[in-house]
Amino acid sequence: MIPPRLVLLDLDGVLVDHARAAREAVRAWLGDRSTPEVEAAWFAAQDRRLAQWRAGSLTWEEQRRERLRDVLPAIGEPVGTDDELDALFASGYGAAYRRSWHGFEDAAPTIRALHAAGIATAVLTNGAEDQQVAKLRAVGLLDLVGAVVTAGALGLRKPDPRAFLAACEHVGVAPSSVLHVGDEHEVDVLGARGAGLRAVLLDREGTAPPDETAVIRSLRELPALVL
């Protein structure tokens, strides 16, 4: 592989352990009401509503409200107005989620190794800009990763190829010289390739599609792959 000029990194699941944070947040928010059934309902609602947001049928705020509307009846809580749902999300799950952010241990050493080899890094993430920047700051990566390009700022979401092209334009590197690393095959890998970037799947859980050959299990494998 010819070394890329830029490695474009996904955030959640790649740099920050979103899955762990989400699990901890649900349990902290719901306390003794957090049964396995309720947790499963919450994460099913999260996946469903975020898919609708990526498709453009819900705004970022609406997908949060709809998650609450999906789950509150199951725990015997009333479903209020939009303003009440926004306040509940912020003070409940949202606050617990922010307290639960953890960076992956392989993130900073890998980024430093890439920089030492002359390869720049940047972040392309689906999410609201204020939250994603706050995550990177909280885990000590904000000053290390380079440019941070968010769906919230672009008005475009992965896997839309235009999101990848906009990120490349933002950092001034041609798509053919960029390698994208993400943990969702359809959203990250196929989306990036559709925009003319190279892509690698970070498969921390060992669930990669059997026909996908560009797979790593840890970010620590990345420098050896691209150098």
Short description:
The protein has helices at residues 18-30, 36-54, 60-71, 82-99, 107-116, 129-138, 151-154, 161-171, 185-194, 222-226; strands spanning 6-9, 120-125, 148-150, 178-182, 198-202, 215-216.
Structural description of this entry:
This protein has about 230 residues and is α/β, with parallel strands linked by helices. It is about 50% helix and about 10% strand. It has a six-stranded parallel β-sheet with strand order 3-2-1-4-5-6, sandwiched between helices.
Sum up the structure in keywords:
alpha/beta; single chain; 6 strands; 227 residues; Rossmann fold; 2 domains; 11% strand
The 3D shape can be described as elongated
Estimate percent helicity: 40-55%
Question: Could you say which structural class the secondary elements and strand pairing correspond to?
Answer: alpha/beta
Task: Determine the CATH superfamily of the largest domain.
Answer: HAD superfamily/HAD-like
Count of domains: 2
What proportion of the residues form beta strands (DSSP E)? 5-15%
- Multimerization state: single chain
Radius of gyration: 18 Å
Sketch the topology as an H/E string, one letter per element: EHHHHHEHEHHEHEEH
CATH C-level of the largest domain? Alpha Beta
Per CATH, which architecture of the largest domain?
Answer: 3-Layer(aba) Sandwich
- In whole angstroms, the N-to-C terminal distance is 8 Å
Uncertain stretches: none
Number of helices: 10
CATH fold-level topology of the largest domain: Rossmann fold
Strand order of the largest sheet: 3-2-1-4-5-6
| β-strand number | 6
